Amino acid sequence: MLDVKFIRENLELVEKSTKEKGYKIDVTEVLSLDDKRKAILSEVEALRAKRNEIAGKMKGGKPAPELIEEGKKIKTEVAEKEKALSLVEAEMNTLLKQIPNVIFEDVPLGGEECSVEVKKWGKNHETGVDHLDYATSRDWLDFERGAKVAGAKFYYLKGDLALLENALLQYGLSKVLEHGFTYMTVPDMVSSRVLEGCGFNPRTSEQSDEYFIEGEDLAMIATAEMPLTGYHMDEILDESKLPLLYAGYSPCFRKEAGAYGKYTRGLFRVHQFNKLEMYVFSLPEQSKEMHEKILAIEEDIWQGLEIPYHVINIAAGDLGAPAAKKYDMEYWSPVNQKYQEITSCSNCTDFQARACNVRVRRKDGSVEFVHTLNGTAIPLARALVVILENYAKEGGKLEVPKVLQPYMGGRKEI
After folding, report:
1. CA-CA 20 to 30 A from 226: which of 40, 107, 182, 220?
2. Does residue 8 carry a catalytic annotation?
3. 91 in any annotated domain
4. Can you tell me the distance from the alpha carbon of 125 to that of 291, in angstroms, rounded to the nearest whole number?
5. 37, 138, 354, 382: which one is catalytic?
């Protein structure tokens, strides 16, 4: 959520970022509602002062009937104005939640096709196996029975492929622990306040990705980023403790409502998968440096797996609402002969922290909102796609990447 004062002082910038991100919102309406809120608040405060004045006069004796009548009248007026104030504040806050974060100056403008490659690593493989056909033929993956018990795009992992998923988790966890992250398991559901605080606002109602719990103020998480964002909600952190680095492991549940036209074969895009997520609470002046650090860790992980990739600076039109800047890492798919997304990392500045009321107390006693950042360490289902495509050998065996062998009992192939 953006600050109304910031919007007022940077209206042109906010309007430009909102438009570039593809949101059709009248930003000036927020300012009109804020003006209305201020006017009503001024009236409320004046009435409260008058009410207190009358209350003072009514002390120490029997008050005059006209004073009692005036007191009742003002009490009614205060209640009416306070109700009007609440309605305006609610309307303003609803609109504020729809305005996306402001983009950084070095974010490319335009749609998805305008994203810019900033680095590349590894030699692209020429050939690979289709992960779905290969894993199914070895009885490692069962979408048919997954659909029987839960519906399309749910699945079972079996045997060595399930063990390989665990090895990927252990490898990714060892990497983030090396960099000072604290490992956490998290709730698989969050309240609407946390969900809204994360800023996952779809551009259209058809793109809503969350599974909601009927009759409860709860939704299944789409990423561990959600409960990690809410971890310090309504807290004031000490400056000396920042940055705080957390690594959250969780299942992720997604309708994939906005995935029309995207690559969806097999495990690449499913309704439930496991993921290890990095999350950072930082001082504002630290966040750009921390963004580069998260990206460096992601690169370290995939270089260890010897998977060729490139990094792209995501264009404004493909950024979500919370991010001021986002990097995607895309691996080279030898099967599809193109780059496909494997991880991402975002700097959300104070957008989420403001909505979830996460602040920092400076050494001089001042208080301000922290910055939040997130990045994928290992998306396990999609990581299996990458390993299967790149490490399957002639004759049906799968070579186990060297860095995963210690977590597979020393086995070099399966």
Report:
1. 107
2. no
3. yes
4. 29
5. 382
